[in-house]
Design goal:
about 120 residues; alpha+beta; Arc Repressor Mutant, subunit A; 3-stranded antiparallel beta sheet; 5 helices; 3 strands; about 10% strand; elongated
């Protein structure tokens, strides 16, 4: 894995993203228009891990997939890319973390009632 992809992946994982999601997102940050097999090989993930990560990232609207019809018969090839600028994804993560911190602070205040 590229050093910058690995560093970004580690930071995303420390922020709470599952490891397979963090690796997939970090890889797509630096490698637009990637096949799932490219992500598997270069991020060191297995096919089921990439599939789960892709579904998570699509549900967050952070990536999108594009089907490319192959010549002849068979399934189309799916290409994955970020669906918005990475800075916006960072803002989404930041907002989620701020909301989580606010909820924790409110719970701590409620807990103090029981002193």
């Amino acid at each position: 894995m590229d050093p910058q992809v690995e560093e970004l992946s580690n930071i995303l994982n420390q922020l709470g993203l599952p490891k397979n999601v963090a690796k997939t997102l970090a890889y797509l940050r630096y490698h637009e228009d990637s096949l799932a097999v490219d992500i598997e090989f270069n991020a060191g993930l297995r096919q089921p891990e990439v599939s789960v990560a892709i579904q998570y990232l699509i549900s967050k609207d952070w990536i999108k997939k594009k089907n490319i019809k192959k010549e002849g018969k068979g399934r189309p090839v799916r290409i994955y890319r970020l669906s918005k600028p990475f800075q916006e994804i960072i803002k989404d993560i930041e907002e989620e973390k701020k909301d989580s911190i606010s909820k924790m602070e409110m719970l701590m205040e409620n807990l103090k009632k029981f002193y």
